[in-house]
Amino acid sequence: MKREILINVGHFEMRTAVLTDGKLVEFYSERPDCKNLVGRIYKGRVENVVPGLAGAFVNINLSKNGFLPLSDIPDKALSEMYDSEVDEEGAEKISRGRKLDLKPGQEILVQVVKEPLGKKGARLSSYAFLPGRYLVLTPSINHIGVSRRIRDRSERGRLRSIASKLKQGKMGLIVRTATEKVPEADIRLDFDNLINMWNSLSKRASQERAPALVYEEPLVSLKLVRDQFTRGVANVIVDSRKEYENILRYLRRNAPKLRSRVRLYSENLPVFERFGVEDQLKSIFERKIWLKSGGYIAIDHTEAMVAIDVNTGRFSGEERPENLIFHTNMEAAREIAHQIRLRDLSGLLVIDFIDMHRREHMSMVLKELKKYLREDKANTDYTGFSRFGLIEITRERKRPGLFVHLTEECSVCHGLGRIPSKEYILSEIERLLQQHSDEFKGHSILIKAEPRIADFLSVQRFEELADWARTYNVAVEVKADIYALGGEYSLILTDTNEILFKREANRIIGKG
After folding, report:
1. Total count of domains within the chain
2. 104 is a domain residue
3. pTM of the model as a whole
4. 8 Å CB contact between 105 and 126
5. pLDDT at 94
6. Nearest Cα to 448, choosing from 424, 464, 429?
7. Are 28 and 220 in contact (CB under 8 A)?
8. Is 359 exposed, middle or buried (0-12, 13-18, 19+ CB in 10 A)?
9. Which residues pair with 135 in a beta bridge?
């Protein structure tokens, strides 16, 4: 099994992809104006305590106050910020916590454990988790835990012994999965870096007035390298020299033996095109996903849950329908697990498999689903098949999934459907200009788009248009098309009126 990490750096977006044998299994996107908040540590100010909600609202200088639960902080959900790294014993000890006696105006150190979603502010914890490459430092939780993914007993014992020697005072440590078979000297170096980070953070917090940001996670590229670049990853391929050098500097300090696996991509064909990622990303925007057997799964988002339906599709003439249904459900279970990870589906997921009569078939389908979700770092909990043939899954939500991140509400249907976001379209157009820069050079390009996109480009992103003109030596004009539907646009070569690229209406997401 070959695993690779690809990093694509654009002016408006950094995109990272994790491939397994060429198949896209995880995708992350980060924009300068929309950075990931999970993991940030703030010196916050308590605005009000609400006994009825058993929590407090804390001002951390965002548009909405964050919510901090008061009882048994951190509870099980909060302790699972790095849930895949903690064994059951550790999670139980951490969850005992203690109650906080908070008052309005009080200043407190808090960490974001869930992104704001909809009308809800960020979810906060009063306990900090500082992740390194091999360890997670828990400054106020006196506990040592070892990742449950490390199954070898002797190795678990070795790592627990090293952590015990490193542990200082009432601080705790969690040994991460990547630490397996890592020399003690490397683990000690990671620990020293974490202690220095915590001391620096604490000093800054003591000097700042609330609300203030005192720590934030690195960019998505370095975070992915820190968390997932292990011996099992063949290559990290990055198309930006600046980011390439950043990664090498990080590895020089933390994992020098892995530096030879980092490659700077310099071909003309964009890196995501070269490795087939762009084509695979299209599935993220599709409601219906066809299976090789001829069946398909349909994924629908509602406010309360994500509903996933499995259908036999094109082939229903099987003489033994139970076999057809079983094999379709088995293939669907594998694809559903893949789509859950890729789309970062979270909250309550309800899967409606095709009805099966044999209990051994139902057991095998559930086992297959769990098997392919085993590599998922997010915490999941399952039910068996209900009497209605449904499986319910709860999957932790730290941030809005890709469906929300890459889209926005359709202004026509008022939230019944979603369409590609303005920022997503902006990044997509830049990638097209970059990909076809040789043929566009010295020409004039017309971007003809639906009014929402046209206004966004010509008014809010005028400077970016000028930057495109300088970078790609092309004249750029924007024109609104009142007949275009949400998400539609065309790139037209004005010299010949040739349509170079067109986003079709069938790419619209949802019912918009």
Report:
1. 4
2. yes
3. 0.78
4. no
5. 42
6. 429
7. yes
8. exposed
9. 175
